[in-house]
Amino acid sequence: MTSERLHIELDRSSPIPLYFQVAEQISEAIRRGDLAPGSRLDNEIQLAERLGLSRPTIRQAIQYLVDKGLLVRKRGVGTQVVHGQGKRSVELTSLYDDLRRAGQEPATRVLAIGTESADENVAAALALPEGTEVLRIERLRYAAGEPLALLNNWLPIGVADLSATSLQERGLYELLRAAGVRMRVANQRIGARAATPTEARLLEERRGAPLLTMVRTTYDDQGKAVEHGSHIYRASHYSLEVTLIER
Fold first, then answer.
1. What predicted TM-score, i.e. pTM, was given to this entire model?
2. Which of 216, 215, 193 is nearest to 205 (CA)?
3. Residue 132: which residues within 8 A CB-CB, separation 6 or more?
């Protein structure tokens, strides 16, 4: 669908600003898949005339969606849909699980797999003496053909028999479960920072682009640490969703 066929209904008596009504309905069309990645929107003048709105109102709506990472302005091309932003609930699942559950077939490129000596942070997370040999895995995770996340994980030796081939075909948590690891709980910390030049290149982002960070240590049903991960996600493509309950 192009924006010419996009139906937008405005409630001019509503206290909700008109630009926000426009932005939310375009956002919903992207989420539903009615506006596919690469779809071009009418220019601001055309949209304004079709909806009976001022050009500044349309510009504000489009800028709102650009800031959310749903649209991108390209010189000589116009305004295009990037994609619907991937959402992930904060629960004990892997990114691979979440993408597949959302109907997006994930792809993985294994950048490194091998043993190394645990530094102070990894050793503390896995409750091992510093310098203990651990398995380190570095992967680049793709969704819809685009790089989404850079994943670094460390595991105690012997937890599971992992290979680059198996990690390209299946998610880490799926492989751990298949190996008999019963993951029960995880401690997780979420943050944000700017991309380094190397990270920007791998994730196809601009240098210094905002990234979401997640550091997680997962424990089995005996309370033993079985995996420690340090992951970064493209903030323009990805969000974390949390349900809050009053107690």
1. 0.61
2. 193
3. 117, 118, 123, 126
